[in-house]
Amino acid sequence: MKSRTMAGRSALLLVMMTTLLTGCGGVFDPQGPVAKDQYFLIALSFGIMLVVMIVVFALFFYALVRFRKRRGQTGYPEQVEGSHKLEVIWTVIPFIIVMILGIITVGYTFKADRQTNIEGNLQVKVIAHQFWWEFIYSDLDVRTAQDLVVPENTWVTVELESSDVLHSFWIPQLAGKMDTNPGMTNRMSFKSDVAGKIFKGKCAELCGASHALMDFKVVTTTADEFDAWLAKMKTPVAVTAATEAGSQVFTNKCLACHAVTVDNASAGPNLAGFANRDKVAGYRDNTEAYLREWILDPEEMKPGAGMPKVPLTDQELDDLVVYLQSLK
Amino acid sequence: MAHAHPVKRYRGIMDWLTTVDHKKIGILYLIAGGFFFLIGGLEAILIRIQLIAPEMNFLPAHTFNELLTMHGTTMIFFAAMPLIFAFMNAVLPLQIGARDVAFPFVNALGFWLFFFGGLMLNISWLIGAVPDAGWTAYVPLSGPDYGSGGVNFYVMGLQIAGIGTLIGGINFLVTVINMRAPGMTYMRMPLFTWASFITSALILFAFPAITVGLVLLMFDRLFGANFFDPAMGGNVVLWQHLFWIFGHPEVYILILPAFGIISEVVSTFSSKRLFGYSSMVFATILIGFLGFMVWAHHMFTTGLGPVANSLFAIATMLIAVPTGIKIFNWIFTLWGGHIRFSTANLFAVSFIPTFVMGGVTGVMLAVAPANFQFHDTYFVVAHFHYVIVGGLVLGLFSGVFYWWPKMFGRVLDEKLGKWFFWLFFVGFHLTFFIQHFLGLQGMPRRVFTYLGGQGWDTGNFVSTVGALLMGVGTIVFLVNIVITSRKPQDAPADPWDGRTLEWTIPSPPPEYNFKQTPLVRGLDAFWVEKVDGRKEMTPAEPVGSIHMPSGSILPIIMSIGLFIGGFGFMYANNPFDNTIISFLFENYIIAIGGVGITLFCMYLRSVNDDPGFHIEPEDQVEKGAKL
Fold it and tell me: Which of A170, A205, A219, B262 could form a disulfide with A177 if both were Cys (CB 3.0 to 4.6 A apart)?
């Protein structure tokens, strides 16, 4: 009975492992060397632990079934004090197992550290805010937010900082996570093996009401696409007749917090290239409907967000949306 | 015989408010801890309902953060800790053949401080400013610049309760060192006593760390200090170190007594002595020692660097070795035994595989580079619920069913007990097993909602169903308590064919526990006598007058004093409409007055000689006082 539950449990485990391995964006579908190393360590430690569990469970369930008190059984069982031989065995073998795992762990810990110090990495300063991410390409003079665009096969080193509370910068498929501590700078490196993908990024440290909604994206490109993206970001979008009115609204109502050119710092997210972003408010699809919803009531969409509800007439809102959607 | 001093003996509710009897204090801990356990459980169910499906609007984001904070804080500090103290009080003195703990007055004070600390924390719900920075209260989120001010309740409540825990720990250390019956050498102590002894030592060294952290946070929040403000030269990581220097040993403070309970129950219900007793003791000490060397494994992603991460990874993995020793010793205690599956033993044996599952994910988490993926995800949530619920709580329930007859004189209903066990056990695994995978699929912990289409929907649904099942199980348990309490108080002294001293005296024991202090002739003292064909212990002293400590109302008044003082400090800068109230708070009159009450009680306690009283042989009835 009990052993059947256990067999069922391990079967369930295997089924779940395989479905997960086919990949739906988690740790099991790594797309870069750092995440692949981490996946290897997870699989390795899980494998070792699975063997341990099988041994322990087998002994345990055997003992439960074999030595249960039978009907009519009288007297007392033999009072065994212990067994030096057995005790040495189950002390030494686990010790050897954890030492092997420990040595491998130390090796990979220092490997990850060396990767952080590779010369010529693309340096990106990441500043975490409640509840959005600012990305500053220090050597390229580009500031942006929410979508971290990186070329494939290039080591990227992020310098992690925070402007308010603790956050944690996490890209499950490319790298693990690292905290952003106010007053300090942490470093972490990763590399994407593929171009043309959008990877999910998340905040992993409780940071306030909208911690759950503090997502970002990592957009991978080819080297040429990356250069083209840089050039485009650095060229301000010309205001046309169609966007003239919205531009005015933006200047009057939004510019105090949002810059639209990549060289300007701003309190809120830099909106250069906003129309190309994957999401609005970090987690909704970047559609007109969601954009309107967001501007009309930021608190409703993202509780605790710093963006105030700016009074706008219907006309102003229409114009503003047209303008924002022209920021390509 | 010298005559007894005249002493005022209280009855009814006053008896409970003034008691210094460890057995009654144990019951108070059980009731209060059980109450907070229900509150924490309710909070958990609300959390799980919000997460049953993507984008639920059952709870607002901010309320969710309050719930997760209060769930964690309540369960660790105000449910798990007092329930452990309940058993330490109810059982430990009996197991070593003592008539009470070393400092009965301090024992009562410890309880009331814990109780008023817990009350203070939970009053935040009524006031509407609830702690919302997680039970770990990481700064700056828990600092003065963020949140609604609810963290004040966390800071004050935990400090008051923490004093209670600390003095409780000291009390049990001294009790074990000084109050053992003749012949009860250290290496003859039951394993629950050993585990509680080590736990008390851990409390002694771990709680000062959180106290320091809480004091610094209190100064930042209430008096404008800047220990944790980087702009003023403070450091946010400092809090994490202080918290986890306490927080990791705290995990062992919780789990070691559960190990002790499991050792007692498995041994009793297999009718075998504990396999490898001395290696069990050694493993317990080693776990306690290593528990202080591993705190930074909670901080692998904080950015401490590869050297620190490597050292803490190795130290963490090493803990697997003594823990493994314990697991194998339990299995080999069962091996060759006549295993009886009472409810207590069902909980105890189910603990073993469940805790192994929590342990192996612990080793996985210790792999520092892989931890960069695991950290702060549902994988971690699954891991620590496997060790705390699957470990500690299963152990506590095992202890509840095992020692209930000794505490209350009534045996809990076995049929309802088994229903409770299966509902709780299945519900537990449904809730938490799947969370390992949610974490690996990228679900961070402490999220109030999530978007669909990430492969998380089914897992979260299953998890919530499991949580509800645990809730149903708990209701069955409450029903069991009610039904049992209506039955006659007729539990035998030794309902389980026990092996240790607590089973040699009536259920519940008389006020003085042992009419004659027993002579201990070996490990499993009662068993030794049974094997020799005796039904009771050999006394180590003649029947005589028994000296008892007298009750006192001071512990509860001292705790109320600190409780009032805590509010005084918290609301010193609060704008009140009423000018008199404003005046009282602003000038720290309430704060100083509250603390003054406590100091005055300490003065009274110091100057008033308390000679206690004696129970003469003719008053030493066999059966304990009715509860």
Answer: A170
